């Protein structure tokens, strides 16, 4: 008995030995041994099992590894051996819930054959309550519960189909009702089930002569051989046909064998009447051997877990890791030499000689080793990733660089980061910069200086502008995370070098923005002069986007720095004003308008910080409470800022605080003035007088400077408010201008009125507010200026500049009409003449409204002044009715006998014809301009005064030169244009021979055109317009012009109207 008893805890070292034991147990037919396998054991057996269990002596000396104890599988085997089925089921359920399933329990409870006995007819084994419990098929009472559990899905081999092959057939019909509600019945068909059914269906179709259907069915399942049942893959005999299965409902055939009910955990005496067959004992022996195999596998898993624990323990002690070595007991058990064993393992397809093989064979077992592995592998991974997806590596690179212990490896990783993408676009640069900020937050300023900044410095001169752009932006985003000494030295020097040397506009723009950020963090006052020079350098940049960045970021940041140091007024603004005055003083040799515009724009961007500083230093600021509930600020109270940094509310801190301060500011100005308010007194007593003095020295011909100063004063007055403008700004301008009639000097005029002060005051100060009283004040000022300049015979350039600036805005057209009408109906002829001169600078929209006023000017001197205005109408207006009135008015000038000897009037008309003729309406030119030019040329031949004749001839030559480029019909060419040229040639032949040569050439070319058109018109091959502008004519004309020896100014006038 001892020899044939099976101890499941004495597992061998190989699975082959277990197979031998299975065969041995199956061959021995000792009934007593097999019957003992089913007999219940006493309670003393588990203790014996515990004492005989295997332990691992190699683990006794290792800390953290507890002494080996009885395995769970051994307990399960003993429970099944002693037929404690319910206890084993409960253990199995708990192990399933904890994720530690035992193969022994799984196989046992998934096999329904463990709960039936196919012996002879057993007697009734137990009477319960007078009722005899009969067992059909030797089935346990809890079989429906066990069968409803899907234990087979946890099979190791993944083929649960074979284990379920008898589940349905062996369940009694009384218990089938419990299977119908089972979740397993509702599951989809399994692959092996599908193949079995396909085989049976195909067999049914062939037997019943559905051959075509069988062929189609075979084609649709070409992966299955329907001639061999073994191809299905089930290790069971072929079942009966489909018809037989249908008739029997899937139940197994009944055999005339007796059954007996047994209970779970019954006593041995209750089973005495049960006969045990030889087949049953053989199955039990095979099952016992299988349990031994499972037990060895369980121990193998347990040892693997202990090895992992040992590896973690050794790694914590500083060891690099445990290199796995094959088990030497294998070769010892097989009596193999170590050399043979090594040679045998060499056939395993592994490689640890390469770099990658070494990394794979030493996988990370801790956080530190993971970082080391990433540091080694990332440089090899990055080059093999697509460029468009490399930004996905940024978090991995930065995390590794942040935590890696080796400085050299960190430097390599950051170098990879900045070289990750050859030409990173805007989104990719944002991702890199975001990572740099996160890196700086984690590592601190010291490592940022030592690790990130060198990467920026290396790429400061990179050939790709995108990489230099990344460097410029990095300096800005890293500024808050650097030490102040580094910001004000290394980073500032880098940005200064890039601003001065880089040729890419986007790079310099990013440099300027980063400089603005740096200025917000520098605390060293010695660096302020350097910041001021960088501001001037950025403002003088040829790129508009760089200048815009300076206004948006750099100037507000520099102003905030100066405000913090208390030098906004004393240094920053004073320095700009001094530079502007220096430019004005040097204007005798030519004013640098671009530089002046640059400085004025900087002064304009400094107005919001100046006003914010005035508010913050006011006497009422300490008592200001944002909770007082002041009325909200009007939307138009301040000009629109160029950026948020120029918003006064942002500079102050909040809109609520600004609202309260503005209310107190207006109250202070209106009732108490500027007493004790040093910052505002500086604005009133130093800034404004200095600016007005600069304006008075500007030449009125510099339209750019006039426009820029007008914009500056407009924004300045809007920022400081209506009360400040009315009480502080306007009085200082009015004191300078002195517009009262008593101060008008008829001989020399008022010098200030001829400077840029008039248009700047009119368009920059008087237009900053647009209420009715403000418009009335502007109208009165312009009328006074017109009258004063007219009575003093002063130049009208300042008034014309005012009209041009105001005429650009349609909102002031009606206001200008009021001023012009005032001049037209004025009692003084000088004022009316001035009004006529003002018509030249107005737009087409105004021309149609003021032409009536021109017709009312009757005085001869005034009429001559209106001719250029009528010429403007001819050039710009297309209304036929208005053109007819202008034509009648000019015809009256030419045909009125009193103007026949008006030399100045004829000069003005001819000059106007030459100026507007090419741009006037063709009908007006053909019917009015050309005929009257011929008449004037013919009359000039009879002029006795040689000087007047030469003046008229020269004016006619310029007019005909301009009109020769226009399309002229053949009739007009013959009747008016050619006769006029011949008359003009007669004059030039006597007065200017060099002009006579050109005129002769022109006449000859025109005659040839007329002759050629007469010949070619019947053929229709060349149009009249094409012949007039032929290349040959232009070449000959220009060659003749090259022989002219007159002044350059006259040549410029000849071609001024060519199109």
Structural commentary:
It is a single chain. With 1059 residues, this protein is mostly helical. It has a two-stranded antiparallel ribbon. The N and C termini lie far apart (128 Å). Residues 1-68, 117-185, 252-274, 318-333, 1019-1034 and 1040-1059 have low confidence and may be disordered.
Which helices and strands occur, and which strands form pairs?
Blueprint: H1 15-27, H2 31-38, H3 45-51, H4 72-81, H5 85-97, H6 103-110, E1 127-128, E2 131-132, H7 143-148, H8 176-180, H9 191-207, H10 211-220, H11 242-248, H12 278-316, H13 328-334, H14 338-345, H15 355-361, H16 367-381, H17 394-403, H18 407-418, H19 426-443, H20 445-458, H21 465-477, H22 484-501, H23 505-519, H24 528-539, H25 544-565, H26 568-585, H27 593-605, H28 607-616, H29 648-652, H30 655-672, H31 678-696, H32 703-720, H33 722-737, H34 757-765, H35 772-791, H36 797-807, H37 813-824, H38 829-838, H39 844-855, H40 860-876, H41 880-895, H42 903-916, H43 922-940, H44 946-963, H45 970-991, H46 993-1016, H47 1024-1028, H48 1031-1041, H49 1048-1054
Antiparallel strand pairs: 1-2
Helix pairs in contact: 1-12, 2-12, 9-10, 16-17, 16-18, 17-18, 17-19, 18-20, 19-20, 19-21, 20-21, 21-23, 22-23, 23-24, 23-25, 24-25, 25-26, 26-27, 26-31, 27-32, 31-33, 32-34, 33-34, 34-36, 35-37, 35-38, 37-38, 37-39, 38-40, 39-40, 40-41, 40-42, 42-44, 43-44, 43-45, 44-45, 45-46, 46-48
Biased composition (Basic and acidic residues): 158-178
Protein name: RAB11 binding and LisH domain, coiled-coil and HEAT repeat containing
Coiled coil: 286-313
């Amino acid at each position: 008995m001892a020899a044939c008893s099976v101890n499941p805890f004495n597992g061998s070292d190989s699975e082959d030995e277990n197979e031998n034991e299975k065969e041995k147990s199956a061959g021995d037919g000792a009934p007593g041994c097999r019957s003992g396998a089913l007999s219940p054991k006493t309670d003393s057996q588990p203790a014996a099992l515990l004492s005989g269990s295997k332990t691992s002596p190699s683990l006794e000396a290792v800390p953290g590894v507890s002494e080996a104890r009885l395995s769970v599988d051994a307990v399960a085997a003993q429970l099944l051996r002693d037929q404690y089925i319910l206890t084993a089921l409960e253990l199995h359920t708990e192990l399933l819930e904890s994720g530690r399933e035992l193969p022994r329990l799984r196989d046992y409870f998934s096999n329904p054959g463990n709960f039936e006995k196919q012996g002879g007819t057993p007697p009734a084994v137990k009477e319960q309550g007078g009722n005899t419990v009969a067992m059909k098929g030797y089935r346990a009472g809890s079989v429906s519960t066990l069968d409803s559990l899907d234990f087979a899905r946890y099979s190791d081999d993944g083929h649960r189909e074979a284990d379920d092959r008898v589940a349905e057939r062996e369940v009694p019909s009384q218990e089938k009702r419990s299977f119908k509600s089972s979740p397993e019945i509702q599951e989809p068909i399994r692959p092996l089930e599908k193949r079995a059914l396909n085989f049976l269906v195909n067999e049914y179709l062939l037997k019943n002569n559905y051959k075509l259907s069988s062929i189609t069915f075979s084609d649709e399942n070409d992966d299955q051989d329907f001639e061999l049942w073994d191809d299905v893959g089930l290790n069971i005999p072929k079942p009966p046909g489909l018809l037989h299965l249908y008739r029997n409902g899937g139940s197994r055939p009944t055999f005339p064998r007796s059954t007996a009910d047994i209970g779970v955990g019954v006593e041995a005496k209750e089973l005495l009447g049960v006969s045990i067959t030889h087949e049953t004992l053989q199955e039990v022996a095979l099952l016992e051997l299988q349990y031994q195999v499972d037990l060895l596998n369980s121990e193998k898993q347990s040892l693997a877990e202990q090895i992992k624990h040992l590896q973690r323990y050794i790694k914590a002690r500083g060891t690099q890791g445990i290199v796995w070595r094959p088990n030497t007991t294998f070769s010892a058990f097989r009596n193999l030499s170590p050399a043979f064993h090594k040679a045998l393992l060499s056939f395993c397809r592994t490689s640890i000689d390469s770099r990658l093989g070494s990394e794979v064979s030493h996988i990370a077992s801790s956080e530190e080793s993971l970082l080391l592995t990433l540091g080694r592998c990332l440089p090899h991974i990055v080059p093999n990733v697509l460029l468009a997806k490399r930004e996905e590596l940024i978090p991995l690179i930065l995390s590794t660089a942040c935590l890696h212990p080796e400085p050299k490896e960190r430097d390599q990783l950051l170098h990879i980061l900045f070289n990750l993408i050859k030409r990173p676009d805007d989104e990719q640069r944002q991702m890199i910069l975001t990572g740099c900020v996160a890196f700086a937050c984690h590592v601190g300023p010291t490592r940022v200086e030592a690790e990130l900044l060198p990467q920026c410095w290396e790429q400061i001169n990179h050939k790709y502008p995108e990489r230099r752009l990344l460097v410029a932006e990095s300096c800005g985003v890293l500024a808050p995370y650097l030490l102040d000494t580094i910001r004000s030295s290394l980073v500032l020097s880098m940005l200064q070098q890039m601003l001065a040397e880089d040729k890419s506009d986007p790079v310099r723009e990013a440099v300027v923005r980063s400089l603005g950020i740096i200025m917000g963090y520098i605390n060293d006052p010695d660096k302020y002069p350097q910041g001021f020079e960088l501001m001037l350098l950025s403002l003088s940049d040829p790129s508009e986007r760089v200048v815009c960045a300076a206004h948006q970021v750099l100037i507000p940041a520099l102003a905030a720095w100066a405000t913090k140091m208390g030098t906004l007024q004393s240094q920053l603004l004073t320095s700009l004003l001094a530079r502007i005055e220096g430019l004005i003083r040097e204007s005798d040799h030519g004013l640098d308008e671009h530089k002046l515009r640059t400085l004025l724009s900087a002064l304009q961007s400094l107005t919001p910080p100046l006003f914010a500083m005035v508010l913050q230093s006011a006497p009422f600021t300490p008592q200001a409470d944002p909770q007082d509930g002041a009325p909200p600020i009007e939307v138009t109270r301040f000009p629109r800022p160029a950026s948020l940094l120029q918003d006064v509310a942002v500079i102050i801190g909040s809109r609520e605080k600004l609202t309260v301060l503005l209310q107190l500011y207006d109250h202070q100005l209106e009732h108490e003035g500027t007493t004790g308010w040093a910052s505002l007194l500086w604005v009133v007593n130093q800034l404004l007088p200095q600016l007005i003095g600069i304006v008075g020295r500007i030449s009125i011909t510099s339209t750019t400077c006039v426009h820029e100063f007008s914009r500056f004063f407009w924004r300045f007055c809007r920022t400081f408010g209506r009360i400040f403008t009315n009480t502080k700004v306007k009085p200082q301008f009015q004191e300078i201008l002195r517009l009262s009639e008593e101060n008008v000097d008829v001989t020399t005029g008022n010098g200030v009125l001829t400077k840029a002060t008039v248009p700047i005051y009119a368009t920059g100060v008087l237009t900053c507010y647009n209420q009715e009283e403000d418009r009335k004040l502007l109208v009165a000022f312009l009328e006074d200026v017109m009258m004063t300049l007219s009575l003093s015979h002063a130049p009208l350039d300042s008034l014309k500049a005012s009209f041009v600036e105001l005429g650009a805005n349609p909102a002031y057209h009606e206001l200008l009409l009021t001023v012009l009408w005032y001049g037209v109906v004025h009692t003084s002829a000088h004022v009316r003449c001035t009004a006529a001169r003002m018509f030249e600078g107005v737009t087409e929209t105004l021309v149609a409204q003021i032409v009536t006023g021109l017709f009312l000017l009757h005085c001869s001197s005034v009429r001559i002044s209106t001719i250029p205005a009528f010429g403007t109408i001819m050039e710009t207006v297309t209304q036929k009715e208005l053109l007819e009135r202008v034509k009648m008015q000019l015809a009256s000038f030419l045909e009125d006998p009193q103007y026949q000897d008006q030399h100045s009037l004829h000069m003005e008309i001819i000059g106007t014809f030459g100026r507007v003729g090419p741009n006037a309406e063709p009908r007006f030119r053909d019917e009015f301009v050309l005929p009257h030019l011929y008449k004037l040329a013919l009359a000039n031949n009879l002029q006795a005064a040689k000087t007047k004749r030469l003046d008229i001839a020269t004016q006619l030559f310029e007019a005909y030169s301009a009109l020769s480029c226009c399309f002229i019909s053949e009739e007009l060419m013959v009747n008016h244009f050619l006769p006029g040229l011949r008359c003009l040639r007669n004059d030039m032949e006597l007065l200017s021979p060099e002009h006579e040569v050109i005129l002769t050439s022109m006449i000859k070319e025109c005659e040839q055109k007329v002759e050629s058109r007469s010949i070619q018109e019947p053929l229709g091959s060349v149009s009249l317009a094409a012949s007039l502008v032929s290349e040959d004519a232009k070449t000959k004309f220009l060659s003749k012009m090259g022989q002219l020896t007159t002044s350059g100014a006259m040549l410029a006038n000849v071609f001024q109207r060519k199109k």
